[in-house]
């Protein structure tokens, strides 16, 4: 998503609501604006992947 306004904000809300219908599928919304650097995105994605791996280990 880019910014919290405009057409993508509505679409982001619809996707977030639909994601709740499928809790077994991991969902990570990322908002990217002119202040977002690649390191911040990398950390978020890496953490998200780590949480997915942790969740799989716990569920087994």
List keywords for this structure.
single chain; mainly alpha; 0% strand
Unreliable parts:
none
DSSP summary, beta strand count: 0
Radius of gyration: 14 Å
Structural class: mainly alpha
Principal-axis shape equals flat
Main beta sheet, described?
none
Q: How far is the N terminus from the C terminus?
A: 33 Å
Order of helices and strands: HH
Give the percentage of residues in beta strands.
under 5%
Number of domains: 1
Report on this model:
It is a single chain. The chain has one domain. Helix content is 58%, strand content 0%. The chain is built from 2 helices and no strands. The chain has helices at residues 7-19, 38-59.
Task: Sum this structure up briefly.
The protein is an all-alpha fold and 60 residues long. The chain contains 2 helices and no strands. 0% of the residues are buried.
What's the layout of helices and strands?
Layout lengths: L6 H13 L18 H22 L1
């Amino acid at each position: 998503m880019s910014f919290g306004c405009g057409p993508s904000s509505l679409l982001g809300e619809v996707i977030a609501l639909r994601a709740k219908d499928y809790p077994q599928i991991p969902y990570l919304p990322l908002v990217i604006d002119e202040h977002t650097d690649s390191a911040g995105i990398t950390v978020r994605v890496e953490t998200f992947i780590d949480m997915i791996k942790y969740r799989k280990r716990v569920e087994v």
